Amino acid sequence: MRDGHRSSEDYLEAILMIREKRGSCRSVDVAAHLGFSKPSVSVAVSKLVDSGCVERLDDGQLVLTDKGMEIARHTLDKHHLLTEMFCKMGVSPDTAEHDACLIEHSLSEETYEKIRVFWNSLR
Questions:
Q1: Tens of pLDDT along the chain (123 residues)?
Q2: Disulfide: which of 15, 80, 105, 107 matches 112 by Cβ 3.0-4.6 Å?
Q3: What is the CA radius of gyration of the chain?
Q4: b or e along 23-33 (b: 16 or more beta carbons within 10 Å of the residue's beta carbon)?
Q5: Cα separations (Å) of 59 from 24, 25, 38, 48, 63?
């Protein structure tokens, strides 16, 4: 997968997570969440605005568009499923989180769908 695509998914997922937790999100929140510099986040957010995934309101709030929300929700769903699966397999929560974050961007949709169906059949 292209690093830019992975990065976009990380940013969108971070915006969604922050907004769900705090009710609002600004670039500084994304920088803190991802551990990136404020200038790097500003550039990335501008690209997401240009791509139609994010809107930046006059007060600096970041809001996902329908397109951005779809990508963010799907990425976060993958992350949650993989983290849960790894933990149930005995992987430590910290390692499960880390590995899920790496893998969620690399899985094909076909493989993810098969994992999702299989995992849900075990519940």
A1: 334 556 899 999 999 999 999 999 999 999 999 999 999 999 999 999 999 999 999 999 999 999 999 999 999 999 999 999 999 999 999 999 999 999 998 899 999 999 999 999 998
A2: 107
A3: 15
A4: eebbbebbbeb
A5: 11, 11, 17, 17, 11
* pTM (predicted TM-score): 0.87
Helix axes 109-122, 66-88, angle to 10 degrees: 50
Q: How many CA atoms lie within 13 A of 97 on its CB side?
A: 3
Give the chain's domains with CATH numbers: 3-65 (1.10.10.10), 71-122 (1.10.60.10)
Q: Residues 103-123: pLDDT tens digits?
A: 998 899 999 999 999 999 998
